[in-house]
Design brief:
141 residues; mainly beta; Deoxyuridine 5'-Triphosphate Nucleotidohydrolase, Chain A; eight-stranded antiparallel β-sheet; three-stranded antiparallel β-sheet; globular
């Protein structure tokens, strides 16, 4: 499948389409700062408060910054946007993230929402534009 035809905001297509599927890159990491609300009927539904997690350069002359994530929960925002109403893609955690003790839920998507990221153990360092998720397969929406 030619995934790029459904995406905008691609960082570097040749690298992102290596292997099975199409890798997505991180644009921002958020912390949940205030609780949201979920109720039965939706009349009291409220979003959670979020703030960007701080990032920093490892060296002053670096082009990109790093997020230093302690164990806990975060929200990922992608550089890429998915543009389709006709197909539903499977979004999964990249193996490289899993091997470092972090994961996000596997989702079936027609657009790319912010995705909850769980970081375990000693934490994780994530570089700006790192490939963190993969789109695979497509089914009619």
């Amino acid at each position: 499948m030619e995934y790029a035809q459904f995406l905008s905001g691609i960082v570097h297509e040749p690298t992102q389409r290596e292997g099975e599927g199409f890798d997505l890159t991180v644009a921002e990491v958020y912390e949940v700062t205030d609780p949201g609300r979920v109720d039965f009927g939706g009349g009291e539904l409220e979003p959670a408060g979020v703030e960007p997690h701080p990032s920093e350069k490892r060296n002053a002359d670096d082009d990109y910054e790093w997020w230093h994530l302690d164990a806990g929960g975060y929200l990922l925002e992608y550089n890429e946007s998915l543009e389709t109403a006709d197909l539903r893609f499977t979004l999964q955690t990249r193996d490289e993230l899993l091997a470092r003790g972090a994961t996000h839920p596997t989702l079936h998507v027609t657009e790319l929402p912010r995705v909850p990221l769980s970081v375990g153990g000693a934490g994780l360092r994530v570089k700006e534009n790192a490939r963190v998720s993969t789109l695979v397969g497509a089914d009619p929406a």
